[in-house]
Amino acid sequence: MFLRLSxxxxxxxxxxxxxxxxxxxxACAGSNxxxxxFNHKTTWQIPGLCIPSVLxxxxxxxxxxxxxxxxxxxxxxxxxxxWQAWLSDGATAGAIGLSCLVTDLDITLKATNxxxxxxxxxxxxxxxxxxxxxxxxxxxxxxxxxxxDALQIKLTGEAADYFDVYYRVHTANLGWMGWAKNSEPAGTxxxxxxxxxxxxxxxxxxxxxxxxxxxxxxxxxxxxDWLDAQLEIVCAANGYDLETCFYYVAxxxxxxxxxxYPTGDWPPLFAxxxxxxxxxxxxRFASLFCCLAGYLGYNVRAIAGAVPSYSQxxxxxxxxxxxxxxxxxxxxxxxxxGYFGFSWYMITYENSPVEYIH
Length: 358
Hints:
- The chain is α+β, with helices and mostly antiparallel strands.
- The radius of gyration is 27 Å and the shape is elongated.
């Protein structure tokens, strides 16, 4: 049987054609339900009815929202329990108040009519931020005792064009924190309060954010509001990734001579000078990267020391130390700025081509 219904709205004629065939059903991508109103009184709810979006000029949107479907599934690996069952769309993974802390997680994306994936990484006490993973990939953290204290999640491809991913964590010391979204850090990377539980949800960009107040993460602060705001801008522009931020400092600023032998809490002061002026000496290169690394949640310190001089004696120099699981790594953005044939990112004192003198 063929049935054509027309509903007249000022300036718009919405024509809905429904085809019913004996013993068959009409299927449509997505899980939305369409509504057909008769005489402004009776509403038929038709599961799967998809009405394409039409612009004022009559153009049909290539991927109208009613045609799209996107959800997320996830599970937690909990100390003394192992992998928990898969959950979805805002359910709480983990265990609150039972001292069963999360060490790893898996996340998968279920999308209809969309390309793309979901990527995620965790920050652990002692090891810092782990590598990004995608679509259900596990790490080797299930065999570790290091607790997760922060996480980042993001969508890619068309999924990221139409949807936002929101997530929040429950920590042992702070309880439920605020919602983060689209690769923002959630948790306490700077103070290391372990994650007990977390929630994840994917929402259309046109939809309101999930309810929940508070900060998504424990914010590192330099004590300078302007500088803290600039650190957020730089970290966000570089994907909240430590290595990307290192090369940003090494490549986007110019070396100039400046004052030596800093005193007091000098990294915030010199970092601000670097951002405002675009140039600086080794102390300013080290200061800016030190502040960025601290903002990203790393155990970091700027060193005022020396290196052997080409002429004679030792030359004053500054670099950054990052401590992960009792291992000290050297990052030298100033040397990276001037010497391109070697990577000065996360090297050790043992494999450094120069002697660093404290």
